[in-house]
Amino acid sequence: MTPKASAPPAADKKASIPLTSHPAKGPITLAVDIGGSGLKAMLLDANGKPVTERQRVVTPEVPAPKPMLEALETLRSGFPEFDRVSVGFPGVIKHGTTYTAANLHPGWVGFPLQTELEKRWKRPVRVCNDAAVQGYGAIHGEGVEMTITLGTGMGGALFTEGRLCPGLELGHHPWKKHTYEDYLGRRGLDKYGKKVWNKYLEEAIAQTAATFNWDHLYLGGGNTKKIEFKPGKNVHIVSNETGLLGGVALWKDDALMARKC
Fold first, then answer.
1. What is the average per-residue pLDDT within 59-88?
2. 229: domain CATH number?
């Protein structure tokens, strides 16, 4: 097993991350992206524009709720003041509770993450599936749009006219002899190698186009840098920061689905 990076400093230090925008237009959102290898965060203004650089800490070796919450506290502690929190989590979310966490730890099943963070940070919090948050940061809100995240696992989200279809969990749908995630997540990349992984990704793009008839597909996540083919028409590779930039959308007046995603 690859050794984890050394632990970050204790969480009780003073905020040290400078604002990159002065003055920042509020309300200010702390956007958090929880992943199998890293926890990322940045502050966004009311329009979803970054007002700090992205910060990252390593996901704990045992990614159970307690060590993960401690790592999130370390991540949060360096930021200036914020008004609310948006969290992207790799699993099914309903009313702020994490129902699945296939690439983290069984302790997350049925965990009230939204309520727990509100209690700890004394701020309103909304938790949503990570692929859905990335989608909010990428989509244009027209037609049928889909996002696929390629990281430790594989996530997916589907939108029609900018509205989320919650609970899709494409990565765990049967595909070939196993599931999409078995071929396109990190396990698949390690097992089959980059050349075959790229072949499977091309096939998956064609399959999702035939299944969902999307108008636009957005590919995100850390493993997009492994892509060696030119994506076809209306397929776009988006920045890894998109998983944070979509956080403000969870607070739109019409984002009632944010409690269900």
1. 96
2. 3.30.420.40
